[in-house]
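Form 7-S
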Amino acid sequence: MNQKQQEEDKILLAHVQDMCRRNAWRSFTNFLDMRQYCMLKKYLLQGSYQFYGGYTDSERGILCIHLQDCPPEQEEFPITCLTIKFREADKLTHRDILGCFMSQQIERNTIGDILVASGKIQCFVLNKIAPVILPIKKIGRVGVKITDQLSFSGDYQQQMQEITGVVSSPRLDAVLKIALHMKRQECSRLILAGLVMVNYQEIMKPDVLLTAGDIFSARGYGKFKLKTISTPNQKGRLHIMIEKYL
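Output:
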């Protein structure tokens, strides 16, 4: 983890600890990613917080600090679902949407998940940001219509690429070798440099063992899920299946 990120984490932790000290009925953060959320959970009392990003299993969400066992309703979170419609013949990506929003001087922590489908994108933003985005008529060269009057449809499906391989053990460096199509020594260097995360936590030990369902990422190479690990074959080797998030 670089020094800038460490400083940002310290500021975020201090902010959340202050929210806890004030013992407010409801206190909401801006949008957090899963790494930030997992970092904060270690310091929070069970039953005094809730993480929600506009829909179930969101990757980015808002953390609510609340009185013990008095969680908020989902409608209380300051989140607006925006639907961006465009011609199916046109193509817009997550990067296109995020780039457009950032060009409006919108900060990243006010934007949640951006879910791309054919001819439609739904994204989640803080309520106060929605009025800035709604008037947008073009993203790149693509004409769009943006509304906040439609609920989340839930018809988005994460696109995944399947990667298979054989390893002697589910060590992080071995699994990463299959995922990245790199030499094992190069994978170890990435890990030791602090560029690899497992379940949103920085891991710097190449020999850490993964289990089926673990999510891992390498900075600059993407995010992956170790989907399955077979039982050992006659030679003691394991067949693994990895899914890469697209």
